[in-house]
Amino acid sequence: MSFLDSIPLGLLVIAALGLGLAPFVPEPHLWEKLKMLGAGTLTRPVDIFDLLMHAAPVVLLIAKLARMAIKA
What we know:
Blueprint (H helix, E strand, L loop, with lengths): L1 H5 L2 H13 L7 H11 L5 H27 L1
């Protein structure tokens, strides 16, 4: 958990917004992949990797915020 504590919050916010919303047009990749996951069409390995890559900063941000809330 010290790894998570060492990551600056601002960096995680920028990474989550940047990778989570990129590309901005026509729709964010993360949203597209989540829709594919919900529809059951997320089957190609490249799409699964893409979902993991775009969701990783968001998951880390949520984990860091939860850890900060527990510490407080």
